[in-house]
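Holo prediction — adenosine monophosphate.
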Amino acid sequence: MKIAVFCGSSRGNDQRFAEAAEEFGNYMASQGMDLVFGGGKVGLMGVVADAVLAGGREVYGVIPESLRDRELAHQGLTRLDVVASMHERKALMADMADAFVALPGGPGTMDEIFEAWTWGQLGYHNKPCAFYNVDGYYDELLAFIRKMSGAGFLKPEYAAMVIVEQQPEALISALENYQPPARKWS
Ligand code: AMP
């Protein structure tokens, strides 16, 4: 399985985030999983890529030219695809991956996981989407997702399709056992 990991291009200000990203990458590699990610060497992105590489698995980066040119690309990957735009990057990552996981991150991470979830809801793909909720980092967002559902903007089955776990073992197992819901508007 190739897992697309979306995560901070910063490390956050608690060492625990980098530790958790490393644990996640180590566990992915131990389970024979490969990584698709944004291709950067910075922040948690670099941490998870290094962990999967150190575990002997393949790591595919997809980076827009402008970010590569600012020397933010990781140089030690199995393959680095350089694309023209963020839109192309997201499309290629979505095609390559079998599952999508958000580790802690900022607006870029939110953009990517919410797009993957939205596309899953519409039936453009049947791949699982997950939050690795390190130390409750996503608790307020998850509360807001419940609010969306309560307010009638998100059907309970599409709220439930998002996997939320605090441990890599439980998260990867949930990805492997995922059953997609019937698509919206069918
Ligand atoms: P953020 O969560 O706002 O730090 O954004 C992280 C996400 O946006 C990552 O999953 C990347 O796909 C993308 N991204 C943001 N900054 C960079 C960067 N410097 N190099 C590569 N990708 C980046």
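READOUT: The chain has a mean pLDDT of 96.
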